[in-house]
Design brief:
With 90 residues, this protein is mainly alpha-helical. It has one domain. It is built from 4 helices and no strands. α1 packs antiparallel against α2 and α2 packs antiparallel against α3. The chain is flat and about 55 Å long.
Length: 90
């Protein structure tokens, strides 16, 4: 029971840190910790599917979108690169 309370308390603390963080990089790292704590909490309760889906869907989606956001690729660059590859087949 102590581990469940510790995970719930960690989830609340990290949630507050996400809101109060000035740096968006640090805020995303705290958000990942929130999802990890929530997933571990659900796994400890015996709700394994939802806990694993938190880890697989939310944490990976946040990290992938965060990386794409900081790479700063413009959609026009993607379209131009795609048209260069399709010229070979036409």
């Amino acid at each position: 029971m102590f581990i469940l309370e510790l995970l719930a308390f960690g989830c609340i603390i990290y949630s507050i840190l996400v809101i109060t963080s000035q740096n968006p990089v640090v805020a995303v790292i705290y958000l990942i910790f929130v999802f990890i704590n929530a997933a571990c909490y659900l796994l400890m309760l015996g709700i394994g599917f939802i806990g694993l889906s938190y880890l697989l869907l939310y944490v990976e989606a946040i990290t992938i979108l965060f990386v794409i956001m900081y790479i700063n690729i413009k959609p026009t660059d993607i379209m131009e690169a795609g048209s260069q590859y399709t010229k070979i087949f036409i």
